[in-house]
Amino acid sequence: MVVGILIEIIWPPHFLLALAYSLHWNGQCIQWPIRAILVKVVPGCDMAGVVVSKGSGVVKFNIGDEVYGNIQDFNAEGKLKQLGTLAEFTVVEEHLVAIKPKNLSFEEAASLPLAAQTAIEGFKVAGFKEGQTVFVIGGAGGVGSLVVQMAKFLFGASHVVATCSTPKVDFVKNLGADEVVDYTKTRYEDIKDKYDLVYDTIGDSKNSFVVAKDDAPIVDITWPPSYPKAIYSSLTVSGENLEQLRPYLETGKIKPVIDPTGPYYFTDVVEAFRYLETGRARGKVVISLFRPDNVPSLASWESRNNPMAEVISQKMSVNVVY
C-alpha cells in the first residue's frame, strides 16, 4: 500500500504504460520478484491522497478531497486498466475509492483497502451471523489483525480467538481477541473448543480445520486452499465497502495496523520489500511518497511549471491524488 498520487479517468493503455509501467530509482529499473520470475511491473494496490484534478464524468469527488482505495480490481471484466500504485501518479475509476476517514493519516488510510476488503469478504462468503464464534489463524498479520477487529466490532462475534507467535500475544489481545493461542506452544489438536467459523489468513487450513465445528465454514484466503473443503475467499474491490467502514474507523472501533518499522519512503523501497520477505511484519508495510518535510501543496501540482501538469493538459482531463 502506498501514499501516492492518483489520476482519475479511464486512461488509455499506452499513456498508463508510459507514465508508470516501471519504477526508476537512481537510474535503474527496479524489478519485482514474482514466484521467482523477475518482471518489470509497478507493485502496489492501495493508495491514499488528495484530488487535484478530475474528469468530466467524475461526480463523487471534488478537487481537494482526501481519498483512499484499492485500485486493482482483478475480478473486473476485460483487461486491467492500471498496474500499481508505487508511483507518483496512479490511474483509477472513481467507484474504487472513498473519502479518507478524517482521523486517519494518509499512511494509515493507505494500509487499509485491500486488507480490509479481503477481511470483509471472508465473513460474507461464510455467511457469518452475529453471536457466533470465530477462530482466526494469523491474528497479527495485515489481514488477520483486521479480521480480529471486524469479528468483534463489525460482525458481532460472541467470542474471538486468534493465533500468533509469542512476541505478538499482547498485541493481538489489544486488537480485541478474547483469547490468544500461541502457536509455538499449542497445537490445533490440543484445543478442546470448536468454533462456528475458522478464518485462516496464512494458508494453514489443512491443519487448522480441526478447530471447526461439524459442517462449520473454513475460510482460507490463500489460493489454492490447502484443505480441500475450505472455502476460498478473495475480495470485492469497491469504494462502497470502504465507506461502510468509515464510522468504525472514525470512532476508533477498528484501527489500522502499520508495522512499527514504517512508514518507508520512496528511497527505501528495496529495503521495504526485503523486510516483507522476512515474514516478520506486524500489520501492514507502508511506503510514503513524500517525507514529512517535503509534502507538496495542491498549488504546486496546478502550477504551469509542473511538467506532468503540462502533459496532462495536452492529453485529457484527469483526477490526480497525492
Task: Provide key terms for this protein.
10 helices; disordered C terminus; 26% helix; single chain; six-stranded mixed beta sheet; six-stranded parallel beta sheet; alpha/beta; 18 strands; 322 residues; disordered N terminus
Can you tell me about this structure?
This protein is an alpha/beta fold and 322 residues long. Helices cover 26% and strands 18% of the residues. It has helices spanning 13-20, 106-110, 113-126, 144-153, 169-175, 205-208, 239-250, 269-277, 298-302, 307-315; strands spanning 2-3, 6-7, 24-25, 28-29, 32-34, 37-39, 46-50, 66-70, 90-91, 97-99, 133-137, 159-164, 179-182, 197-200, 218-220, 231-232, 264-265, 287-288. A six-stranded mixed sheet has the order 10-8-7-1-18-17. Strands 13-12-11-14-15-16 form a six-stranded parallel sheet, with helices on one face. Strands 2-9 form a two-stranded parallel sheet.
In terms of topology, how is this protein built?
Blueprint: E1 2-3, E2 6-7, H1 13-20, E3 24-25, E4 28-29, E5 32-34, E6 37-39, E7 46-50, E8 66-70, E9 90-91, E10 97-99, H2 106-110, H3 113-126, E11 133-137, H4 144-153, E12 159-164, H5 169-175, E13 179-182, E14 197-200, H6 205-208, E15 218-220, E16 231-232, H7 239-250, E17 264-265, H8 269-277, E18 287-288, H9 298-302, H10 307-315
Parallel strand pairs: 1-7, 1-18, 2-9, 11-12, 11-14, 12-13, 14-15, 15-16, 17-18
Antiparallel strand pairs: 3-4, 5-6, 7-8, 8-10
Helix pairs in contact: 3-4
